[in-house]
Amino acid sequence: MMSTEEAAALIEPGDVIFVGCAGNLAVPLVDAICAREDLAGIRMIGSTNGDDFLAVTDKSCFGRVQYGSIFLGSSERRNYSGGNVQPNSIHYHNFYRAMRDVYKVNTLIMECSAPGEDGYLYYGSRGVCWAKVDELASKIILQVNPQQQKVSGVHIVQIIGCILPIICV
User: Fold this and answer.
1) For 22-69, what is each residue's pLDDT tens digit?
2) 112 in Cβ contact with 26 (< 8 Å)
3) Distance of alpha carbon 44 from alpha carbon 1, whole angstroms
4) pTM for this one?
């Protein structure tokens, strides 16, 4: 376990990060990465995100962090006119191939459940669609949410960073 800032420090210039979608967007971690003024050339890919986050709201990070959405959620639609939301049309059955061959994702950042006795952290019901990105990522950094459902997961030995639990109210 580590702090949000320690996890954000694992990101390097040029990283291409899949940040999950909807119930899996790790907003504090994504925002901590966007706040790093020493980073440039970061690309984030996400989908159907409803919560506002710095990659789509804070113009001071737009030149350093590009954000592409494969399906616009409410936050992405709301902030589209700000200039850092790049819509990308991908059929869901082509998602894995696009992440591998087009975007060349090397980092996965998502919210997950606390680890179970079996050593797995689970992405939740909405993370099932995106779970195979962990096969492409050389870096897996997860934000623990004890309220996250236990559906499709990754074993703890595959993760390079895990930030402190958040509490959903």
Assistant:
1) 778 899 999 999 999 999 999 999 987 878 999 999 999 999 999 999
2) no
3) 23
4) 0.85
Give the CA angle between residues 20, 36, 99 to the nearest 5°.
Answer: 30
**Contacting residues for 141 by C-beta, under 8 A, at least 6 apart:** 7, 10, 29, 107, 108, 109, 159, 160, 161, 162, 163
Contacts of 94 (CB under 8 A, 6+ apart): none
Give yes or no for a contact between 29 and 7, defined as CB atoms under 8 angstroms apart: yes
Q: Distance of CA 140 to CAs 17, 25, 29, 83, 108, Å?
A: 10, 14, 12, 28, 5
